């Protein structure tokens, strides 16, 4: 979560409709795509969490009273009014013109976002509204239970933010649902980084896949419970090359010592191909086979 000292310029972003109407010259450069933008929003947040996040606390204008959280109002919620919201393909942006301050939130830091029904603090109408609930990870020291610390807040759009839209399925999307969909789409563009060791969790102990670039195109296996390739086989003994290593009686005929690992029952045995009527190539009937009946 980074502080902003100047308001983002909407004209510097490419509108989503324009982005979808043409093929960009590059998918890796150029201005960010604006998926959603709304002005005069409210940010509902716990007082203690607001005081613990200086970048968010800066959104409150100087005219607003600065409260100090105590044990009595530990769960007190406050609403910051007049906050503009930009959902871009790069980052999630908040800015307050009255306070001349804003925040830039990377999408990997948004660990959770969902639709929420709530009452806005200080709203005399006391009616429930829809908002976008968000959990933003904060880079603080790990807690005692090793859980990631996060700041929770809800973005509430103004009543006249936008008109409701109908989807192809006939459902009605509220402006807040459109905001939710925009955050979901942009979050998918920024997947969480893979932590070291995550890719090897499902592999057996000792097994290791080696890059083909490092071993001239040959994938090798370490001691992962499988026998090593037989010398001279350029790989493994398969049905296609078995005749190069065993005769019809299963005796080792290839150069070098016979493999010492167990091959399993029937390994190396060459069986005659059976005809469709159940008779072997030598013409003798296999008495153990069932005969076809009408």
UniProtKB/TrEMBL annotation:
Q: Where found, per UniProt?
A: Cytoplasm; Nucleus
Q: Which residues form a coiled coil?
A: none
Q: Which InterPro entries match?
A: ICln/Lot5/Saf5, PH-like_dom_sf
A GO biological-process term: mRNA cis splicing, via spliceosome
Taxonomically, the superkingdom here is Eukaryota
What is one term from the GO cellular component aspect held by the record?
A: cytosol
Primary localization class, coarse: cytoplasm
Going by the UniProt record, its keywords in alphabetical order are: Cytoplasm, Nucleus
A Pfam short name: Voldacs
Query: Composition bias, kind Acidic residues: at what positions?
Result: 277-287
Region Disordered, residue ranges: 256-294
Protein name (Swiss-Prot/TrEMBL): Regulator of volume decrease after cellular swelling-domain-containing protein
Lineage of the native species? Eukaryota, Fungi, Dikarya, Ascomycota, Pezizomycotina
